[in-house]
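input
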Amino acid sequence: MAHTSDQPPQKPAPDSSRRSEKSRRAIYDAALALVTEVGYPKTTIEGIAARAGVGKQTIYRWWSSKADVLLEAFIDLSAQAAEAAARPEVIGEGAEYEIPDTGDLEADLKLVLRSTVDELLDPTFEAPSRALAAEGVVNEQVGREFVGKLLEPQLQLYVKRLRAAQEQGAVRADIDPRIALELFVSPLAQRWLQYTGPITYEYTDKLVEYALYGLAPRGPAAR
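output
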């Protein structure tokens, strides 16, 4: 007869990394939901912790302030949106998201700005984005981190694409790409933030055309 132990079978040790990732994801979701519902000023670490079902100290172990939590959550949200919008046939499966380079600058810029329109009009993205952008106007630290951690890395994608266009001869060599990108990015941001007009594909297509070709007559009319 086989010997049987009175000891209960040992359960496998909990996977702390899996538990941490689950908690981190819950905190992201809670932070984005709260800033959407009550705005940035009324969002607190305590509220995020309660909503996420974690202890306040868990949040403070990973982040020093609610601004850090919200910015990281928003960056993660933006990264997911960029990954969902990326076309594997253009940038490669699993590749880091970049503005496509098909050799046609106009088409590539129109494509990425249309994806931006989709993102700006997505309620999941729009509410926390507006809350953080508005807070950044009155809170210098939040504004600086919002620009440095989220906006500037995205703008550098445009810089890289415009520099490639310069190398291909599609953009003048003396153009500063960092200034040039503002011709189509800044009007879109202003219209979105101030509700001065509809955000549409047609609008962003026109921004690209005006930025690339200017306002002077073209073709026979130019003569």
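quick obs: The first helix runs from residue 16 to 38.
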